[in-house]
From TrEMBL:
GO terms for biological process: cobalamin biosynthetic process. The active site is at residue 48. One of its GO terms (molecular function) is adenosylcobinamide kinase activity. The lineage of its organism: Bacteria, Bacillati, Actinomycetota, Actinomycetes, Micrococcales. This is Adenosylcobinamide kinase. It comes from the Bacteria. It comes from Janibacter alkaliphilus. InterPro entries: CobU/CobP (IPR003203), P-loop_NTPase (IPR027417). It catalyses: adenosylcob(III)inamide + ATP = adenosylcob(III)inamide phosphate + ADP + H(+); adenosylcob(III)inamide phosphate + GTP + H(+) = adenosylcob(III)inamide-GDP + diphosphate; adenosylcob(III)inamide + GTP = adenosylcob(III)inamide phosphate + GDP + H(+). Its EC number is 2.7.1.156, 2.7.7.62.
Amino acid sequence: MRTLVTGGVRCGKSAHAEELLAGHREVTYLATGPQRDDADWAARVRAHQQRRPGSWRTVETSDAADALRVAEGPVLLDCVGTWLTAQLDELAAWDAPETAWVPELDRRVEDLVAAWSTSDGVAVTNEVGWGVVPEHRSGRIFADRLGLTNQRLAAASDRVVLVVAGQPLVVRDRGRAWQATPPR
C-alpha cells in the first residue's frame, strides 16, 4: 500500500508518516534532503533522526526512484519537496529557459512515479500552492512543479492524507474520494 502524506511546513506530516510505519521493525527511510552548512537545517535533520527507530535503515540520496526500486520492505520517502529542489538544482532550472530543463525534469518525475507505483510505504510532500502566486521566478517554478509532481504521486497512491495542525485528514482511501454531500 502506498500513502502520500502532504501538508504545510511544521504541520506534523513527517511524524504522522513515521506513525503509519511504526509497526514495522525494518523500514528504509529515504532522506532526500540536501547536506547544508546551516545550523537550523542540521537541527531539523537531527530531530528527524532521533525520532526514528534504530532498526530503520537510512538512505540519503537525491536518486529517489532508484532507491525505491532497490528497497526491500516498506519505505518512508521524506520528502518530495527536497527531492524536487535537488532535481531543479542539478538541472540549473532556476535561471535557464524552461525548454532547457522541463523535458528532463518530466522524465525524472515520470521515473519517480513509476518507482513509487511498485513500492510499499509512505511518501511525505509539501503543499505550497495555497497562497498567492510567488513573486519570484524560483518560487513559481518550485510551486508549479511540486504541485504537478504531487498530483502524479497522489494518482499513483492508494491513500492520500493531508495533515493540518498535527491532525491527519484522509483525502482519499483506496480510490474512494471524500464527498461533502452523499451521492444521490
